[in-house]
Specification:
This protein is mostly beta strands. Helix content is 0%, strand content 65%. It has strands at residues 5-10, 15-21, 23-28, 31-35, 42-45, 50-56, 59-72, 76-86. Strands 1, 2, 3, 4, 5, 6, 7 and 8 form an eight-stranded mixed sheet that branches. Strand 7 (59-72) and strand 8 form a beta hairpin.
Length: 93
């Protein structure tokens, strides 16, 4: 079994999601980024309109986000979003 990342998705006023995940996909100003356990460390700026997708055990949870930052370490991901809402079916990729 692949090792998992510890993920925290935080909006301005609340922690939206936290836990272990297999993969995180986020849209940054440089393009879409997929993160697995052991990813090189980085700090990126989230796109003004984008989506964060958290994949775990064959399931995917998606959130629409606007602005903010993503911080990646070898074992985890922290996403600080200016705004964050659960993705609707029409906005899912």
């Amino acid at each position: 079994m692949a090792r998992q990342l510890y993920v925290e998705l935080v909006a301005v006023e609340e922690k939206v999601w936290s836990g272990d995940a297999d993969m995180v996909v986020a849209r940054t100003t440089e393009g879409e980024l997929g993160v697995l356990y052991g990813h090189e460390q980085l700090l990126g700026q989230l796109a003004e309109e984008g989506q964060v997708r958290i994949k775990q055990g064959g399931q995917e949870t998606a959130y629409d986000v606007a602005g903010g930052f993503i911080s990646v370490t070898g074992t985890g991901v922290t996403i600080l979003a200016e705004s964050c809402t659960p993705a609707t079916a029409s906005s899912a990729h």
